[in-house]
Amino acid sequence: MSDTTVTLSVEGMTCASCVARVEKSAKKVGGVGEVNVNLATEKVTLTYDPAKTGLEAIAAAVRIAGYTLRLPAEPSESTESSARELESPQESAFRKLKSDFILSALLSAPVMAISMAAMTDWFARTFPLGMSDVNTLLFLLTTLVIAGPGRRFFTVAWTMAKHLTADMNTLVAVGTGTAYLFSSIVTLFPRWLPEAHHAGHLYFDTAATIVTLILLGRMLEARARSRTTDAIRGLAMLRPATARVIRDGIERDIPTSEVRHGDTVIVRPGERLPADGVVERGSSPVDESMITGESMPVDKAAGDKVTGGTVNLSGGLEFRATAVGNETVIANIVRLVEEAQGSKAPIQAHVDRVAAVFVPVVMGVAALTFLGWFTLGGLPFTPAMINFIAVLIIACPCALGLATPTAIMVGTGLGATRGILIKNAGSLERAHSVTTVVFDKTGTLTTGRPSVAQVVAFGSHDESSVLRYAAAVESRSEHPLGRAIVDAARLRNVGPSQVESFGSMTGRGVTAVVAGDAVAVGNTGLMKQHAIGLELSAGAVARISAEGETPVYVAVNGSLAGVIAIGDSLKPGATQVVAGLRAAGIAVVMITGDNEATAGAIAAQAGIDRVIAGVMPGDKAERIRELQAGGEIVAMVGDGVNDAPALARADVSIAMGHGTDIAMQTADITIVSGELGGVTAAIRLSKKTVAAIRQNLFWAFIYNIVGIPLAAFGLLNPLVAAAAMALSSVSVVSNSLRLKKTAL
């Protein structure tokens, strides 16, 4: 039985230490392979062997570590349902945090106000209460904060302590708990700490306000984090709720989830298509921008493929459903983006190593701070305790845990809305360091729709006979150049001939017996293989190649009969894309099986000065390896099928998708529209995303590097530390969200 990969929700995580703990606990279960936990999405993607373990066992191990793994419910065919499942935990968490924060703020405000006012003569004159009564009131209000909104920190910390572990909740619980417990003893048992009682050393305001500020930070963080999934949620919600189908000759409206293969679906102007299919009747421009990223609508008519979620703009369409539910392009895109957002970028490995030891180290620093000030520094117990609390509160691994995944989520989501599908976080990170982009020629740099430009005949043959022989042989071939020859013969009314003994030589051409004549159609390699002289064609081939056209030789009964020139024009914008890459300091190479003259002409039109020509399909990967051996970090751009070995060999593989025929599983990055501008956009997106990750990590690390020593040396008030800690995570998420405004 093969391994199974699933993505599940995890509850209870708050920081990078939590991520490390969940991963560690899951990996301890026998049969579990790779485990990736994403703090930003609160999901875990894990691979396990069903023959050795089950999800229940993994969930139990995670539960022992103090977290809840949500096992999958019954599978649903509804994309809308998937969107709701994605949204629900985040929205629910935000609402709970919001209510807890409001309650905590309402209780903490009078605690802070009374604590400050009680130090003034005005308070004593205005309110005839003794300090004992004031302290009791502060105790009651703070107890409500700690036992109510602040209970979450202590509950998780206690769970962690039972398993001899600690996380961010531990730091908050120990810090606020110390301030609360000390102040409670001074208030309820003044004889135990007489000096503190007489001096009025109470820190109820510190405990209550820290809880409130941290809840505020988490609430703002939750709201910001929910925005990181806007792109994928928007894609998931593209399908309409209902579909209009014809069944048994009757037109009826049904839920989209009930559309079946082969159903005839009617789409009126302005409506979204509920499934993928093929148009049977009608014609209309269709807006595919949410799928391909291209703003211009695409005209659709009978025989054209259409994609669910796109918008029918003006005419009526009837199409036959070919993919429904989770089979549709949108469902596959959503799944791909979810997997990418759940994966880890290589840079995250460094953060994970830090997070694994962060909380224990902070606890140790805090303890040393207290002992240092109290025993060596001669500081009284209370100020030493305040420094101890400040160290605990200022340490914030939350920002470290969010720095990478939030940027990856926004980056992959933005790419998806622009028609750039990124397979995983590693692909997105690697793309930023590309030094060389290698383009396949046919179908990538060029339109991939070759046509016959001219026919040159030799000896006793004329153009029609050359074309007839070539078309007869190529009628058995599926090669694009062969189809162009067959199409040209049809347009010129060159009749078909009887074909026998067809044979194909990969990378060279085809042979057959046509009406009793032995015919070979292909390149110079095939001609040499059959010992056919090419002297007659030298001038014509030179001219054809100079014009950027591909010469196809036609030999009949061992002699050269003619040459067919086949041209393939550059894709719109190819020149601008090449210029843009070169301006960014990235080298551009074109690789092709064409001869050097033809390849050079196409490359010159595109502005490419480095060409690798005459390469067999199977040898392209070796050429990529040679570039890598020279120190280049190579991105290969191809069609995702014919160039599969080269794509697999490259550091970053980019497949050019066309409509619904997307090689989403083949390449690291897929450009859905097939437009070359997507290549530069993908590299630009990678650079922007990696820049955001580095900025996030810089601020997350610098925050702790500066903040912890300040607190340890007694230069940081716990309340200031709490406010700074609350804002650190929000700033990291907000910085990631700036990617949404990136112009690709």
What is the C-alpha radius of gyration, as a whole number of Å?
34 Å
Overall spatial form: elongated
Number of strands: 26
**How would a crystallographer describe the biggest sheet?**
7 strands, mixed
**Low-confidence runs of at least 5 consecutive residues:** 74-87, 659-663
Q: Please tell me the overall pLDDT.
A: 85
Q: Helicity, in percent?
A: 40-55%
Strand order of the biggest β-sheet: 14-26-25-24-15-22-23
Helix count equals 27
Topology:
Elements: E1 4-11, H1 16-27, E2 32-38, E3 43-48, H2 55-64, E4 68-70, H3 79-117, H4 121-126, H5 131-147, H6 151-162, H7 168-188, H8 194-199, H9 204-227, H10 230-236, E5 242-247, E6 250-255, E7 264-267, E8 276-281, E9 284-287, H11 289-292, E10 298-300, E11 305-306, E12 311-312, E13 317-323, H12 329-342, H13 348-376, H14 381-394, H15 397-417, E14 420-422, H16 425-431, E15 436-440, H17 441-445, E16 451-457, H18 463-474, H19 480-491, E17 499-505, E18 509-514, E19 517-522, H20 524-529, H21 538-546, E20 550-556, E21 559-567, H22 574-583, E22 587-591, H23 596-606, E23 610-612, H24 620-629, E24 634-638, H25 644-649, E25 652-656, E26 669-671, H26 677-712, H27 718-737
Parallel strand pairs: 15-22, 15-24, 22-23, 24-25, 25-26
Antiparallel strand pairs: 1-3, 1-4, 2-3, 5-6, 5-7, 7-13, 8-11, 8-13, 9-10, 9-12, 14-26, 16-21, 17-18, 18-19, 19-20, 20-21
Helix pairs in contact: 1-13, 3-5, 3-9, 3-10, 5-7, 5-9, 6-7, 7-9, 7-14, 9-27, 10-12, 10-15, 12-15, 13-14, 13-15, 14-26, 14-27, 15-26, 15-27, 16-26, 18-19, 21-23, 26-27
